[in-house]
């Protein structure tokens, strides 16, 4: 799936992602600083019925959001430098949980994922427009 | 010395209801509280006696050298490795033994679940083993109540006051009516202020964390050299995500015109970034004082060490009649002294944790 969108159509993009992502609850978010990864996750969380404030987990590593119908772990691995640090904060425990896992800056985690997962790549077209690609990775070997 | 005799409190303390007579009786003896903090990166322990900090230890290479091993870089499994040496060190520096302790205080949340669990389990075990009360502490309340640590040369804010906690993970304005009567009246809807510094620094090619470096260079540059628009956020909430993007676009645009733009203008860029960020914080504080009528402002969190915010607060005192409070730096970052002071304040109110208390990653003020 590939979409070009602006801030105004973010809600439709979130709907489309949720409808498409039926085979895994792990979504990795790639994109440079300022492409709107957190902004998109904010919209996804809202669309899933969570009223929690979505803020950037760069410092806290993981934010948890819950509603009656969904629970979401929002990761930001920006400041991690080694794979060991993922294990140090218990990444396996989170991955095994039956919740959504939205992961920003996932490069350290990706090689460790074996089962299917989704990967979103956001590119900046211009100041207002973004291009998004959603892919299902069935075998990461 | 505060620990002239062992102060293991007797049953008397727990039978008396919460009133001033009780605090009077209790303050005539020495109460020792061990505070334990493990909500994010740092494992920390502190001993407080009657409001005065006797030790304030954060896991560091030095402790590990003393007890063997190296400091793991980050997070929860590291806490397991750190917690016993850090507590040992805190007791040693306070010159007391475990049996002198009156209660154990620990960070219940908010924070990283795995990290919180280490501190919570450890605190429960040691309190159970010593048969002394356990006090659960909210990390965000602790950042604010750190102002009530007895410290020469530092004054305590009178109730009600406004507390602004600014750090890598938090940006919050809280109306504090009493120790445990707090209301969040504004917070960030995306990035924390410390993150705005760090990510701007990343764009400029500075190391992580970039806050101190931007602050240092800001003093050498012209704050009005470049203008960044301030985000429009309703009420007392903050947003720094758009600011970060504005800095990024600005730098990209200028570098296209002049590849040496960053190195030629680094001090001016840092000064302009700092000027904008501080402006955002001060604008919200002005609004908060206007809305609440409260002019006592207490700052906490690691960003309170920033010289720009300190200067701006001083100006606020002259221009708007504010009285501002900044605690000692070691009590502003994540630390256990702030957990210990909350432990002490709750101890005085007989406000102890239930036996089945659990860590809570999403704990709110």
Automatic annotation (TrEMBL), chain A:
Compartments reported by the entry: Cytoplasm
UniProt keyword Isomerase present: no
A GO CC term assigned to this protein in UniProt: cytoplasm
Cross-referenced InterPro entries: P-loop_NTPase, T6A_TsaE
UniProt keyword annotation of RNA-binding present: no
Gene3D superfamilies: P-loop containing nucleotide triphosphate hydrolases
GO biological process: tRNA threonylcarbamoyladenosine modification
UniProt keyword annotations, A-Z: ATP-binding, Cytoplasm, Magnesium, Metal-binding, Nucleotide-binding, tRNA processing
Family the entry assigns: Belongs to the TsaE family.
Xref: PANTHER family: TRNA THREONYLCARBAMOYLADENOSINE BIOSYNTHESIS PROTEIN TSAE (PTHR33540)
Entry protein name: tRNA threonylcarbamoyladenosine biosynthesis protein TsaE
Organism: Bizionia paragorgiae
TrEMBL record, chain B:
Subcellular location: Cytoplasm
Cofactor(s), names only, from the UniProt record: Fe(2+)
Species whose genome carries this gene: Bizionia paragorgiae
Keywords, ordered alphabetically: Acyltransferase, Cytoplasm, Iron, Metal-binding, Transferase, tRNA processing
Chief place of localization: cytoplasm
Positions that bind substrate: 165-169, 198, 211, 215, 306
Domain (Gcp-like) ranges: 53-340
Biological-process GO terms, alphabetical: tRNA threonylcarbamoyladenosine modification
InterPro entries: ATPase_NBD, Gcp-like_dom, KAE1/TsaD, Peptidase_M22_CS, TsaD
UniProt-recorded name of the protein: tRNA N6-adenosine threonylcarbamoyltransferase
Record function comment: Required for the formation of a threonylcarbamoyl group on adenosine at position 37 (t(6)A37) in tRNAs that read codons beginning with adenine. Is involved in the transfer of the threonylcarbamoyl moiety of threonylcarbamoyl-AMP (TC-AMP) to the N6 group of A37, together with TsaE and TsaB. TsaD likely plays a direct catalytic role in this reaction.
Binding site for Fe cation: 139, 143, 334
Example of a GO MF term: tRNA N(6)-L-threonylcarbamoyladenine synthase activity
Keyword Acetylation: no
UniProt family annotation: Belongs to the KAE1 / TsaD family.
EC number: 2.3.1.234
Cofactor binding comment, as recorded: Binds 1 Fe(2+) ion per subunit.
Source species, domain of life: Bacteria
């Amino acid at each position: 799936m590939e979409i070009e969108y602006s801030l105004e159509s973010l809600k439709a993009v979130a709907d489309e992602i949720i409808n498409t992502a039926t085979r895994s609850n792990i979504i990795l978010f790639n994109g440079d600083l300022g492409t709107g990864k957190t902004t998109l996750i904010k919209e996804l969380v809202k669309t899933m019925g969570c009223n929690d404030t979505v803020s950037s987990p760069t410092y806290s590593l993981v934010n948890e959001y819950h509603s009656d119908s969904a629970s979401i772990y929002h990761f930001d691995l920006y400041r991690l430098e080694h794979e060991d640090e993922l294990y140090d904060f218990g990444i396996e425990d989170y991955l095994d949980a039956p919740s959504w896992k939205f992961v920003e800056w996932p490069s350290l985690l990706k090689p460790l994922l074996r089962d299917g997962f989704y990967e979103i790549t956001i590119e900046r077209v211009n100041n207002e427009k973004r291009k998004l690609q959603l892919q299902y990775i069935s075998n990461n070997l | 010395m505060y620990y002239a005799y062992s102060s293991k409190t007797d049953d008397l303390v727990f039978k008396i209801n919460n009133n001033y007579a009780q605090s009077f009786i209790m303050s005539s003896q020495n109460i020792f509280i061990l505070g334990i903090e493990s909500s994010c990166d740092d494992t920390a322990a502190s001993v407080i006696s009657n409001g005065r900090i006797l030790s304030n230890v954060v896991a560091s290479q030095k402790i590990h050298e003393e007890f063997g091993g190296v400091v793991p870089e980050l997070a929860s499994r590291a806490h397991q490795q750190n917690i016993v040496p850090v507590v040992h060190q805190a007791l040693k520096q306070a010159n007391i033994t475990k049996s002198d302790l009156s209660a154990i205080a620990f960070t219940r949340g908010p924070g990283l679940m795995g990290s919180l669990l280490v501190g919570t389990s450890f605190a429960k075990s040691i309190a159970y083993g010593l048969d002394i009360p356990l006090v659960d502490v909210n990390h965000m309340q602790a950042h604010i109540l750190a102002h009530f640590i007895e410290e020469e040369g530092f004054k305590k804010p009178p109730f009600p006051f406004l507390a602004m906690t600014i750090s890598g993970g938090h940006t919050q304005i809280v109306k504090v009516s009493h120790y445990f009567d707090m209301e969040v009246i504004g917070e960030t809807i995306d990035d924390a202020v410390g993150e705005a510094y760090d990510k701007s620094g990343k764009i400029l090619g500075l190391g992580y964390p970039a806050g101190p470096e931007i602050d240092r260079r800001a003093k050498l540059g012209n704050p009005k050299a470049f203008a960044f628009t301030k985000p429009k956020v309703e009420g007392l909430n903050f947003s720094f995500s758009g600011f970060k993007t504005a800095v990024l676009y600005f730098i990209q645009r200028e570098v296209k015109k002049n590849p040496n733009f960053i190195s030629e203008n680094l001090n001016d860029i840092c000064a302009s970034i700092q000027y904008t960020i501080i402006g955002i914080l001060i604008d919200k504080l002005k609004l908060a004082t206007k809305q609440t009528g409260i002019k006592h402002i207490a700052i906490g969190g690691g960003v309170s060490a920033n010289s720009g915010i300190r200067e701006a607060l001083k100006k606020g005192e002259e221009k708007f009649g504010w009285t501002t409070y900044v605690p000692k730096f070691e009590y502003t970052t994540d630390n256990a002294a702030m957990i210990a002071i909350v432990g002490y304040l709750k101890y005085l109110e007989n406000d102890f944790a239930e036996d089945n208390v659990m860590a809570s990653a999403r704990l709110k003020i």
